[in-house]
Amino acid sequence: MKKTILALLIAAAAIGLSIPARAGSLWSDTNESLFIDSKALYVGDIVTIVVVENTSATQKSSSKIKQDEKLDSSDGTGIIGKFLNATGIKGSDQYSADGNTTSGNTLTTTISAEIMEVLPNGNLLVEARRSMVVNAETQTMVLSGVIRSTDVSRDNKIASSRISNLNIRYEGKGPIARRQKPGILNKLFDLVF
Q1: How many folded domains does the chain comprise?
Q2: Alpha-carbon span 133 to 10, nearest angstrom
Q3: C-beta of residue 115 within 8 angstroms of C-beta of residue 123
Q4: pTM for this structure?
Q5: What is the per-residue pLDDT for 129?
Q6: Which residue blocks in 28-130 are alpha helix, DSSP H?
Q7: What is the pLDDT of residue 98?
Q8: How many other C-beta atoms are found inside a 10 Å radius of the C-beta of residue 176?
């Protein structure tokens, strides 16, 4: 029995020596660090922008103009002088106008933007584009601006209110957008009148 156990131990040792040993490490060669957040910092990195934009504007104007004119003439000689004496010319104009304009817009969405450039001061130039086609109507949103890397949260998000030089374009093309533009006759009447 001792010989059998000894033979098994020798066979197990031979098998164990033939398998290459792998050294495991706690260190990883990836760029992930235990001490810093994985935020967008370099050209080509992606950052999520939470867009919450509300705008409202009100404009009021009022105009009142009154003008009186009176033309008197002394006795004149000739036909025109006698006519002016007989009739007396008086005139007045009165103009009054009031106007109000009110507008308001709300845009709420989340969009992913790419870092296009790292500026010399460390700020990041970002740009995002999104197009959606629904029922033959193409809605396109383009967003660009400058962000600070310190404003990007740990989950790689930034609010649109933290973006400098923010430029948002939201436009549509298709049958609905065409119907919202004035036609040729309306443009002609606006030009003439």
Answers
A1: 1
A2: 71
A3: no
A4: 0.53
A5: 93
A6: 79-87
A7: 76
A8: 13
73 inside domain: yes
The answer to whether position 27 is within a domain reads no
| Distance of alpha carbon 6 from alpha carbon 130, whole angstroms | 72
Specify whether the CB–CB gap between 190 and 184 falls below 8 A: no
Spans of the chain below 50 pLDDT: none
Q: Report how far residue 65's alpha carbon sits from residue 90's, in angstroms, rounded to the nearest whole number.
A: 17
Give the closest residue to 152 by CA, choosing from 50, 54, 52, 44. 50
State how far the Cα of 47 lies from the Cα of 28, in Å rounded to an integer.
Answer: 24
Q: From CA 142, how far away is CA 127, in angstroms rounded?
A: 7
DSSP, res 118: E
Is 32 a member of any domain? no
Using one digit for the tens of pLDDT, what is the confidence trace for 59-94?
887 777 776 666 555 555 566 666 656 565 566 667
pLDDT at residue 89 in the model: 58
Structural domain boundaries enclosing 164? 46-192
Residue 18 lies in a domain: no
User: Helix or strand or coil: residue 167?
Assistant: strand
